[in-house]
Specification:
Radius of gyration: 26 Å
Number of helices: 20
CATH class of the largest domain: Alpha Beta
Strand order of the largest sheet: 3-2-1-12-13-7
CATH superfamily of the largest domain: HUPs
CATH topology of the largest domain: Rossmann fold
Helix content: 40-55%
Largest sheet: 6 strands, parallel
Strand content: 15-25%
Shape: elongated
Distance between the termini: 49 Å
Bound molecules: 5'-O-[(L-methionyl)-sulphamoyl]adenosine
CATH architecture of the largest domain: 3-Layer(aba) Sandwich
Number of domains: 2
Amino acid sequence: MKYFYVTTPIYYVNDKPHVGHAYSTVIADCAARFKRLSGYKVFFQTGTDEHGLKIEKEADARGIAPKELADSMHIKFKELFSDLNISYDRFIRTTDADHVQTVRTAFEKLLKNGDIYLSEYEGWYCTPCETFLTEKSLSEGGKCPQCGRPASKVKEESYFLKLDKYEKKLLDFIENNSGFIKPEFRKNEVLSFVKEGLKNLSISRTSFKWGIPVPGDDNHVIYVWFDALLNYLTGLGHETYLEGRNPDFERFLESTNHIVGKDILKFHAVYWPIMLFALGLRPPKTILAHGWWLMDGAKMSKSLGNVIDPKVIVEKFGADALRYFLLSEITIGLDGDFNTGSFTVRYNSGLANDLGNLVSRTAAMLRKYADGKIPGKNAGEDAAVLNEALVLLNGLGERYDRYDFAKILEDIFRFINILNKYINDSAPWKLNINEPEDRSNLFKILKTAAVSIYYISYFIYPFMPETSGKINNMLNIKPFDLPGFSLDPGDAADYCEKLFKNGFSIAEKSEILFPRIKFE
Ligand code: MSP
């Protein structure tokens, strides 16, 4: 059995989700769906990051308790993920009892083995980023170099995690494990950060209360990032593993793919592997750092007030339209602009015209010329067209491993347009069904189109699961996410041949997949 553990960052509950949060989650969902379809045992975790000063301050501002804020806000994330058809296995909250236990266990273990020690922190802190900063790194006017907001001076007793001890081990690990940091160009950023020398990390605070108390020292709450990163172990059942009851733990751990935004790469590629080293565990297989969605050149963020509410887009255009836009518009790793013009073009020309029309015209032709029946083994197939699908199947797994999503989608749409052109050029409506040669040509075209649409449904499933389900309904074929069903790309052609051998009837009616839009 092959394993795949994929995670999103856990989201701060200081405010409701925006498009940037939807993005990390949709990438992870697409990967999880592809792996499940390919027969992997998948565990997909997302959730919310609920502790820390940032949440405490926001709760204060609203005049409610931090837990109350988390209770109401985490629902907004769950609702959005349900609207977007996110197929997570667990939605973790850092206030969950098993997570609190994982954090306490880890802290105690590292305190015992000497990787955590008590001292004093004097320096700067950015609350919106929940990050400790050195004086040197501040930008003009004492601002955070990351978000540009004022940092505050901190001087307090603090527990520290030894990073210097593991610096060399981390450098070796990064250099010897290609594919640990994706895309490749981000690796050098991380390497040069580590090579500058790692200062031990402050991992507790005494000046506020909203966090997990340090075991045996109630004056301190554990630093929110130390707490948050451990969510990845809680989800895998770290506690049951420690008790010797979880055989899957290590297999999932070694197949871990963390999907994160570039702004939090350092936490995942530097602090997190060191925490794992200290715990005697291995670092993740892959950390994928994606870029940012911008509005007019600035990062979409609540504090700048330039956010797009993904819920509104889903309500108007459907989950798949947003998923498709997010995954096709930018190459993963780069930044992109969320603008209505490009959304409209992608929707109207890609989804409504190219894909939607192809499916509806094929269904209409099958009904008109073949009584709704896909011709079986007596009909020919156009090898040149179907060969394009085989080319796409080839190497699909590796392309997913590289998170080459925009390029995969580009190739799927190229195939869609090859088929559209094939139908236009062969003009089945001009053929005379009563002429034997025309008739066999017509059936060949119909069968080629139907088989190709099945392939298209297979290809788009991880990106647009709802649309894939609708296409399979139209074809009268079981959906790809039927429990227990899997179809590896390497087996898809054989499977398809068997499926279509005897022909079958399509559904009597089918819906329009993507009605054209006018976008204001
Ligand atoms: N709570 C931490 C993560 C802890 S993971 C152990 C956090 N939360 S966050 O809510 O601020 O951000 C979560 C994710 O959303 C990050 O990966 C971040 O990059 C992503 N995005 C937030 N705004 C974004 C855009 N405008 N564009 C794309 N993604 C961005 O950080």
